Amino acid sequence: MSSLLLLTNALQPSTEVLPALGLLLHSVRVAPAEGPALVDTPGADVILIDGRRDLPQVRSLCQLLRSTGPGCPLILVVTEGGLAAVTADWGIDDVLLDTAGPAEVEARLRLAMGRQQITTDDSPMEIRNGDLSVDEATYSAKLKGRVLDLTFKEFELLKYLAQHPGRVFTRAQLLQEVWGYDYFGGTRTVDVHVRRLRAKLGPEHESLIGTVRNVGYRFVAPEKVERAAEEARAKAAARDAGAGGAARGGLPDGGAGSAAKTAAARPANS
Question: Listing from the earlier edge strand, what are the strands of the sheet with 46-50?
Fold first, then answer.
């Protein structure tokens, strides 16, 4: 028997939100569909979210839960009409129709908890590349210890690129992998998010996301970025040194020329 937490603002028992729950031997607790409500709520094996109405608010709640890392699968319960609004950026693990039968609900709960266990046991929760760390558990990224203020999609884009350092992705590939198969926007979306992401990385680290002309983007290893920066600084120092030497070398010639001109201008002694 699993412990389920149902988040809903409907003044109804859990069996009204998802009738199949009444036929299964799971412990179900009900709490308001609000982020703060989770603070005083004990942990659960699976969180069910009532998405039968007010989809924009439910979407925000799902993204909030995903960003705070509840540590368990999130399953959204929707009507058949609500399915069309659900996309990958909601951050949920699965979706259920409110009319689903007990066998389907049981199977989806079992699979969700199984995937969660595999992820917990085998998958790295943190991606590290030099001074950049991307934490999948908390949906946060740090650069030299500084927390980057990223949106959900900016984080997903950075994470995906950092997972495949050096590999070049076309805009269409990134759109498919990060935004999902059901996203109908253009590839210009990728360019916009890359530009914003580079701005948040800062001038010294914006080249972590490299552009491959006429192809797409790739993640450049931090050590290569630092090496390129050092080479650029060395070249600049060499240019400055050369310019300074030329300026200093020109003074004696100028002095001699002036002396010659002065001597030529003096009248000869009679």
Answer: 27-31, 3-7, 46-50, 74-78, 94-97
Assigned fold of 126-222: Arc Repressor Mutant, subunit A (1.10.10)
pLDDT for res 176: 86
For 203-215, how does the pLDDT look when each residue is reduced to its tens digit (9 = 90+)?
989 999 999 988 8
CA dist 93 and 118 (Å) reads 14
Whole-prediction pTM: 0.47
Higher pLDDT, 113 or 244: 113
Q: Which two tokens stand for residue 172?
A: 């269409």
- What's the confidence (pLDDT) of residue 145? 86
Q: What is the mean pLDDT of the chain?
A: 81
Where does the pLDDT of residue 154 fall: very low under 50, low under 70, confident under 90, or very high at 90 and above?
A: very high
Contact 45, 22 (CB under 8 A): no
- All CATH 1.10.10.10 domain ranges of the chain, comma separated, are 126-222
CATH architecture of 3-122: 3-Layer(aba) Sandwich (3.40)
How high is the pLDDT of residue 266?
54
**Domain(s) of CATH 3.40.50.2300: residues in the chain:** 3-122
Which residues make Cβ contacts (< 8 Å) with residue 155, sequence separation at least 6?
A: 134, 139, 140, 141
Contacting residues for 130 by C-beta, under 8 A, at least 6 apart: 221, 222, 223, 225, 226
